[in-house]
Amino acid sequence: MTKKFLYLLSFFLLINCASKEEEIYTPIPYNLEIPALFANKLIAPVIPSNNPLTQEGVALGKKLFFDKILSGDETQSCASCHNPKKSFTDNQQLSDGINGLLGTRNSMPLFNLAWNFDERFAWDGKEFGLEKQALEPVSNPIEMHANWKNIAQKLQEHPEYPTLFLQAFGNLNIDSVAVTKAIAQFERTLISGNSKFDNYLKGEAILTSEEQNGFAIFMDEAKGDCFHCHGSDNNPLWTDNKFHNNGLDATFTDLGFGNITGDPADNGKFRSPSIRNLVFTAPYMHDGRFTTLEEVINHYSEGLQRSSTLDPLMKKVNQGGVNLTTKEKADLKAFLVSLSDFDFVNNPDFQE
Amino acid sequence: MKKIILFFLTLIFFSSCGDQVECCVYPEPVNVTLKFTQNWDGVPVTSSDFNDFKFTNLHGETISISDLRYLLSTITVGSKIKNYQLINIGENTGLQLNFEQIEQGTSILKFRFGFADADNKDGEYQDLNSVSFNVPGMLGGGYHYMQFDGKYKDTNNQDANFNYHTLRAVNRADPSKLIFQDTSFEVDLGTVEITNNATIEIKMNIAEWFKNPNTWNLNQLNTVLMPNFEAQKLMSANGKSVFSLGAITQ
């Protein structure tokens, strides 16, 4: 009898404890402001049910994103290579890590990541999901080169972080799982949908005749034919987030998607980047080989290289590409530039 | 307490009533799954056959397929209709479509290849926008019916690209006055006898796109077919013999 009583007592005690903890803090749901154009045209963004956005989670993720504590010698944060002023990339051809070691890829801009419906991240799709992706740069020896155990310990002993983690995630351990959850929450709030072209689609801006003509070239199968891979007025992501070989090389030093799938038919394929915010994100392509948009356009116009995995949408390979005139190139560039979102790079919510 | 008893009584009453109707008057409704398969003149084609010059069309060009996705609409089994289905062979998505609550007995089976004009509304379908299946506004907007991309060996035996994209045909002779022709078409597969939960195979013979009635010469018609009014009409004509009824298991 006393035993039973004891059980009962401890049971109530436990319940009491639990409810007390809930009393301590319940994170407030974060209201993701989805641009009307996205809401109208696209399916819902990907938000995993085990990591809903909360105000505390997003704030914690932001702090971590900008904090050098995540690197081995505390000299580098995520923002070192993903600078908000540059649409969350850097202007280097290849990113260098804490030891000055150069990677082999150009850093990627970060926006509209929750609309990458297949959740394949990085140029070659090697990372599945944002939470998993955030694990990688921290321990990568040519990026932040840290040890997750040490980081967890540093965060646990930090004067501010334990409270912030408690508020965001309750009693969840402060470890790589909690850190990457918070960072992923912050990353999902990075939405860019307020360029001149967006405003034009909303009827709030007027395009110049050059921009208008450039858009027509982009959409014309007989001219640029860019829309099959890079979105359109009906797909405001301005990417298909799929893997293609757009004719950069005849032979590959970086197999890209082929490395991940193991299928030689995928060699030389990389994920189509969004063409939003290009004025901030130079240089271009997975290896940052082009420093200007002129070079990019020249590539599609007359620089295509043949290879067995070249995408069939790359036309007129024998003539090197779609052969745009000087005027058409300039107009196409004017259109591309009209997709620059200055509000995004200046948004105070996204600055350190 | 009285209320609760009353509630249970009504519950029992209603559920038993439902039972009676089901058991004695009509046979149970069943589930029907449409399974979309592809073949090249009878040889099965799946995504694992892509990116390989293993097919030869009637005109004699050797072909490798890179992407193949197509849209069916107003898919009808008996009295049930589904609005549309995007079938993507390369990514193995949309290959099955389930219908629930199909009455047993004789069911009609038909669908439309692509969208009829009335349903071909620009930007209307979020799932299709999200996978970039749209047709540019300058061609009248709406959606592709099919996006079939690949390579063929040209007359110099060199790789050349083809983009066999079908959509509502548009005549752009006068860009300010586009003339449209609805080139989507109905495929009527007749009736099937449904006696149980069933899986019905719907076959696409890809080779037919190059065959009948128009022998397709890829050296002449390969890319930039979207704005090509005549090519769209030829493709539509060839499409009519592409689909057929396959195996029915139940």
From TrEMBL, chain B:
Q: Where are the annotated coiled coils located?
A: none
Transmembrane region(s): none
Q: Reply yes or no: does the keyword Iron-sulfur apply.
A: no
**Is Hydrolase found in the keyword set?**
no
Write down the superkingdom of origin.
Bacteria
Write out the entry's keywords from A to Z: Signal
Q: Which residues form the Copper-binding protein MbnP-like domain?
A: 31-223
Region forming the signal peptide = 1-18
A single Pfam family it belongs to is: MbnP
According to UniProt, the name of this protein is: Copper-binding protein MbnP-like domain-containing protein
Gene source species: Polaribacter glomeratus
> Lineage in the entry?
Bacteria, Pseudomonadati, Bacteroidota, Flavobacteriia, Flavobacteriales
